[in-house]
């Protein structure tokens, strides 16, 4: 009678394990597709700052005419 909790714990462990597998799969698929981990909570300000940073880096990489 003391092993009755195992009857509920086993399916719960399987469900928790599958949730972990699915979460990690999403992480690695996104990283493979975009080359970097997903930015959590990315709003319009973050998008604007990424565009600004990308433009600044492109301007810095262009050689200046001498």
TrEMBL record:
It is found in: Mitochondrion inner membrane. InterPro entries: NADH_Ub_cplx-1_asu_su-1. The chain crosses the membrane at residues 12-29. It comes from the Eukaryota. Keywords: Electron transport, Membrane, Mitochondrion, Mitochondrion inner membrane, Respiratory chain, Transmembrane, Transmembrane helix, Transport. It is a single-pass membrane protein. Accessory subunit of the mitochondrial membrane respiratory chain NADH dehydrogenase (Complex I), that is believed not to be involved in catalysis. Complex I functions in the transfer of electrons from NADH to the respiratory chain. The immediate electron acceptor for the enzyme is believed to be ubiquinone. PANTHER family: NADH DEHYDROGENASE [UBIQUINONE] 1 ALPHA SUBCOMPLEX SUBUNIT 1 (PTHR17098:SF2), NADH-UBIQUINONE OXIDOREDUCTASE MWFE SUBUNIT (PTHR17098). Belongs to the complex I NDUFA1 subunit family. This is NADH dehydrogenase [ubiquinone] 1 alpha subcomplex subunit 1. It comes from Hevea brasiliensis (Para rubber tree).
